[in-house]
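Quarterly update from the structural biology core.
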Amino acid sequence: MSDNDRMLITVAILGGTGKEGSGLAMRWALHGYRVLIGSRELERARTRAAELNQQLGGDYLVGMTNADAAARADLVVLTVPYSAHRDTLLSVRDQLQGKILVDVTVPLAPPHIRTVTVPEGKAAALETALLLGESVRVVSAFQNVSAEKMKTVDEEVNCDVLITSDDDEAKAEVAKLVEAAGMRAIDAGPLANAVAAEALTPVLLYINKKYGVKGAGIRITNLP
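Predicted structure, tokenized:
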């Protein structure tokens, strides 16, 4: 993808004021994407966008409400806690129709965040697809990437990204975002396989604590 192609794409990050969303926002903005920071509160979004712009040394990011960000974007990324997952999706359901929605959500159940929790719908991404309907192209990705590793925006992240979806074209678009963020994209099959990707996150959190490290990730071996 050329720089001109990227400038034609606007990416909204709902929950972009958090650590995960902020790291992705900065990396994509530096690689030519137009990025909108979404939040339930307009002032919070604007404040966070200004903070990140200061770190980046330019006016790259724009803060707005989740609904406005979703409406103006070509592709939307959801990076909210599971506790806010359903309500956030319902609040922007109309704005998401006909678009790609990348769900980064992991169904953690505090305080037991290092134990796998399987939600009623088997995976957060599957619940998203059911809630939004067939006209939204749901992709699951980025669950196993540590926010700690994305803060240093000029370094590659030592982690592969598993991408699952029932839409091959949507997976290909998200793979470009993965590469722009400094990681390797792995096509991990249909959206049903998001169950495995989401379940890996609490395992990685357990490994972090057990071995006293930050940002344990995954690598798929024996690929070309």
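The longest strand covers residues 34-39.
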